Amino acid sequence: MTIGIVGAGQLGRMLALAGYPLGLDFLFLDRSADVPAAVLAPVVAGEFTDRALLRRLARRCEVLSFDWENISVSALRVATRGLRTRLSPPLRALATGQDRLAEKRLFERLRIPTTRYATVGSRAALERACAQIGLPGVLKTRRLGYDGKGQALVRRRADIGAAWEALGGVPLLYEEFIDFELEVSALGTRALDGSEALYPLTRNWHAGGMLRLSVAPWEAPGLERQARAHLRAVLRDFSYVGTLALEFFVRRGRLIANELAPRVHNSGHWTIEGAVTSQFENHLRAIAGLPLGRTAATGHAAMVNLIGRMPPAAAVLAQPGVHLHDYGKSERPGRKLGHCTLVAASAAERDRRARKLLRALAQSLSPAQAQAGAP
Ligand SMILES: Nc1ncnc2c1ncn2[C@@H]1O[C@H](COP(=O)(O)OP(=O)(O)O)[C@@H](O)[C@H]1O
Ligand SMILES: [Mg+2]
């Protein structure tokens, strides 16, 4: 069976790596052929909005999926019309995941607590939103934001002008700043027959809007129960097929939904080594119409993102039990280039080894080391 994937980034690459053992074949579409998944499968190069190209892709595969949500819903709909090719996850989930307002409305409809917000279309509307929702707050583009891009923090009234200058001109959303205790994500997969496989709760640390570190299982039974209920509600509402992630803030022990991703998610990369079945394999099992695999954690995992600069492989692999995933991308500040994972026997051991790994990574990338020509 051939799986077509729109987008051939690191998520597509890890999907293909998980899919070949299952006997699946892959075909990608991306804007360039120089993309992380290109070493694994053919890449059709062209625009995500090119209907003829999407249709050609759709004709060549049994199932069409995507590894990136900033693609054209209407082009995908038209491209698959009249074909037997199945589109998974469903377009409604993709459309919702593309628009922060649609996400908020979904959360509200499903009674999932989310941040207070107001839509913003003008500078005057931003002034009103700040007065109504309060300060501090975060101004976000409704569409196309990722890794903290398309956001501006509004600490005080004096910041309003700069925030508007930075982001104005496209539909925006202003929301309260959440002084959270922690951030967690809930990941799960729903199969064609409606069966569900939910992963243990993951705790995430971001800096500058980008995920840096995840650990799982995050043992907080009350939070996990709430998160699973919310995740199930979303999966069922969409009649979802595939893997989906929900991101939450935690304030005073309560979950506040931040956003959703209708795809495999960075905070679930630990599942490759740390769960019985990875989020990638379960996504593929789901969209291929196969039974889902177990999601139990095999230990206590930590996942560290490698951003901007790639440490020497030897420095990472010298850490006992650490796995390296190099996405094959060129270095650029703020770019996700890879990640590494470790799995420990206890949460305490995981935290100790994760701290050691973070120190080793910092050291291997420090200018002093580079100047000395150290490996
Ligand atoms: N309203 C908020 N209050 C506090 N922190 C926020 C808020 N919105 C975003 N952040 C921080 O920025 C990160 C990225 O924002 P998010 O809305 O998830 O956008 P992206 O699509 O870039 O991941 C969050 O994980 C969180 O750490
Ligand atoms: Mg996010």
Characterization of this structure:
- With 375 residues, the protein is α+β, with helices and mostly antiparallel strands.
- It folds into three domains: 2-87, Rossmann fold; 116-176, Dna Ligase, domain 1; 182-369, ATP-grasp fold, B domain (D-amino Acid Aminotransferase, Chain A, domain 1, 2-Layer Sandwich), CATH 3.30.470.20.
- Helices cover 33% and strands 27% of the residues.
- The protein has helices spanning 10-19, 51-59, 73-80, 91-97, 100-109, 123-133, 160-167, 221-237, 271-274, 279-287, 313-317, 347-364, 367-372; strands spanning 2-6, 25-30, 43-45, 63-66, 86-87, 117-120, 137-141, 151-154, 172-176, 182-190, 196-198, 202-207, 210-216, 242-251, 254-261, 300-307, 323-326, 336-344.
- Strands 10, 11, 12, 13, 14, 15, 16, 17 and 18 form a nine-stranded antiparallel beta sheet that branches.
- Helix 3 links the parallel strand 4 (63-66) and strand 5.
- Helix 1 (10-19) packs across helix 10.
- The protein is globular and about 55 Å long.
- The N and C termini lie far apart (43 Å).
- The relative contact order is 0.12.
- Mean pLDDT is 95; it is low at 370-375.
- The structure holds adenosine-5'-diphosphate and magnesium ion.
- Magnesium ion binds at residues 247, 259.
